[in-house]
């Protein structure tokens, strides 16, 4: 992708995928978030769009500025503080999109420390949308 502004590893799930998890899945998610977030790959932000590589069977997901309706970083009933850690650094980045619905992202997540780069990415995506 030309002129990449940011690039990192991600794990993700749609809100619909998180809703489908059983109690056993959520218990496994306490040990490893990977049990809850089936999608993983590279995320890249450039002038052309936000790309989530290896999104699904059809390949990468590319989101334009217009496809991202809103973004926020918060714990929800689908992914709460107990799952994401006690620190604000564990809050998921939630993109509401016109194509996939809500996408929950953990970017550059450190397994033990519960830290992510979501705050930095939220600011970068917001600035990109305004440009």
Largest sheet: 7 strands, antiparallel
Classification by helices and strands = alpha+beta
Quick one: how many beta strands?
A: 7
Rounded mean pLDDT is 86
CATH-level-2 architecture: Roll
Q: H/E order of the elements?
A: EHHEEEEHEEH
The Rg value, from CA coordinates, equals: 14 Å
Q: What's the N-to-C terminus distance?
A: 18 Å
The CATH topology assignment is PH-domain like
Low-confidence stretches: none
How would you characterize this protein structure?
The protein is α+β, with helices and mostly antiparallel strands. It has a single domain (4-130), classed as Pleckstrin-homology domain (PH domain)/Phosphotyrosine-binding domain (PTB) (PH-domain like). The protein has four helices and seven strands. It has helices at 15-19, 23-31, 81-84, 118-130; strands at 4-14, 39-46, 49-56, 59-63, 68-73, 93-97, 101-107. Strands 4-3-2-1-7-6-5 form a seven-stranded antiparallel β-sheet. The chain is globular. The relative contact order is 0.21. The mean pLDDT is 86.
Note the topology:
Elements: E1 4-14, H1 15-19, H2 23-31, E2 39-46, E3 49-56, E4 59-63, E5 68-73, H3 81-84, E6 93-97, E7 101-107, H4 118-130
Antiparallel strand pairs: 1-2, 1-7, 2-3, 3-4, 5-6, 6-7
TL;DR of this structure?
Helices cover 24% and strands 38% of the residues. The protein is α+β, with helices and mostly antiparallel strands and 131 residues long.
Task: List the keywords.
4 helices, globular, single chain, PH-domain like, alpha+beta, 38% strand, 131 residues, seven-stranded antiparallel sheet
């Amino acid at each position: 992708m030309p002129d990449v502004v940011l690039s990192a590893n991600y794990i993700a799930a749609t809100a619909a995928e998180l809703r489908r998890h059983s109690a056993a899945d959520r218990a496994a998610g306490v040990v490893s978030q990977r049990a809850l977030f089936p999608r993983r790959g590279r995320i890249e932000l450039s002038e052309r769009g936000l790309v989530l590589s290896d999104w699904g069977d059809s390949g990468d997901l590319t989101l334009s500025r217009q496809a991202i309706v809103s973004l926020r970083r918060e714990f929800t009933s689908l992914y709460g503080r107990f799952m994401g850690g006690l620190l604000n650094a564990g809050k998921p980045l939630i993109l509401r999109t016109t194509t996939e619905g809500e996408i929950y992202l953990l970017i550059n997540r450190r397994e033990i420390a519960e830290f992510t780069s979501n705050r930095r990415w939220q600011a970068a995506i917001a600035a990109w949308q305004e440009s």
